[in-house]
Write the structure tokens for this entry.
Amino acid sequence: MIHRLGVEQMADKNMTPPANLSGITRPGRGIVVVKPKDFKGTLHRLWRLTKGHRRGLGWILLLSAFASGASILSPYITGNVVTAVKEGDAITLILLMLAALYVSEWLIKFLQQFLMAAIGQRIIHHIRRTLFDKIKTLPLAFFDRHQHGELMSRLTNDVDNISTTISNSLTLLLTYGFTIIGILVMMLCLSPLLTLVSLVGVVCILVLTKVVTKHTKKLFAEQQKNLGILNGQIEEDISGLSIIKAFCREEEMEREFEEKNDKLCRVSIHALIWSGYLMPLMNVINNLCYVAIAVFSGVLFVNGNISDIGLITSFLLYVRQFTRPFVEVANIYNNFQTAVAGAERVFEILDEESEPADKEKTFSLENPHGDIVMDHVQFGYTPDKLVLKDISLTIPAGTKVAIVGPTGSGKTTIINLLTRFYDVSGGSITLDGHDLRDYRMQDLREVFGVVLQDTALFNSTVKENIAYGREGVTMEKIIDAARIAGADGFIERLPKGYDTELSQGGAELSQGERQLLTIARAVLTNAPIMILDEATSSVDTVTEQKIRRAMLKICEGRTSFIIAHRLSTIRDSDIIILIENGVIAEKGTHEELMALNGKYALMYRTQSSQTVERA
């Protein structure tokens, strides 16, 4: 089973990954809102995406109407209680009705949240599953253009924002929407004149909110910017702490941290002060509006324009309820803005072109031999810049090929083309006489076993890491693979041997030990074609010899490609290819290239002299 070549080989592709996009912050009062590019279009597409997974939303809509109805009727019934007390009528039945209304409202809201939790999680499960299924089909070029942190942000932060909006904000938005409309209707029915007076307060609140948020938006945007700068400083200082200590730069590090931290503190204080104005001022406006209506309605009652004291009581209760939903709806709308912006980032991934589909008629790869022919191959990661300009090469089955050359010359690019992480821009590559594109993708990649410079170990046991991608493999085969790779010795010294749990990518092991485990994994695949990409570049000389012996064992009888900077590890290769500027500059055995006395010979002698000097 082939293991993906990651972004770490991008130096060989002359490509630079884009800057990481920050995760979307869940908004609230005073928090920066990430606005979508196409609010309506994205909402419509999100609605289509969730088709078949939003069963029960109709009940949520109905329950929201009932919940709003309960909160709308309670002030009216309270006014009737006051009227009944004034006129000396019995109020027991009315009070029972009011109590029943409050209990009903609680039950309705509980049922609403219960249903919405199930519906919301079902929808998010579908979105996350759809996104993850799409990521599995994307070509390596996509992962070269996006950093891992950015993709994690889309899978977690963006989807979580959508989840929060669907689970919480949607029900509140529906409830508040019905409440605003219902209260306005009831107020108009009770007294159109008093309603007109109360609307003045609502207009004042809306104007105030617009003025304050105009200032806070800029301040909180600056706060987020300075927070990002400070986080970058902290991450850089922690990761490079050993270098900072070695060069005695602790005081300089502290000074830079203080400067950035103080700047963030000043901006945050200003932002919080401005955002702190909003709620107190809104409360003042609400209270003034409430007092004005109370006084005005009292005057109307004294003058005989209003005869029912219960009407005034109900209206004052409605005034208390009327302004609050406007502010909450504004905050909920901000949540929707951020969630839709997150949905756009999710759709950007879903819109990416997947790996090319297999042809309808493909050739079988049941017993591959490993004969490879590259015929005038050309390739560029961007159309205007070719990395490989003209590569022609015939590799018989069982040949051990070493590829050398400067960084960025195209060594790893050849591997990416062989495994069809990319397709050639010109020319062709054949395996056993057929073009690579004539095989089923999964069958083709199972032909290759890969060992990379950067080891990929998972948080599981040693035996599970060796058997990765090989279901049902016996313990005997795992041990045999470890023995061939030369890893059995140190594995048996681990606390639980093959059952030892690895954490943080095998941090408890040395670099060489981790590399030997990945070689054991490649041995277990028993693939007819092996690829070893810089497998010994970051280990000491003793470990290098262990890995070299393991490489020789797994390459026996197989077509193999070895990419190496240490030329001493590839002396016994059948063919050594020197790639330079996208073409084959030199080709031959070690002895032939040394006799040629060209660039390879110069590189080898330079490395040999450096080794002697270090010794």
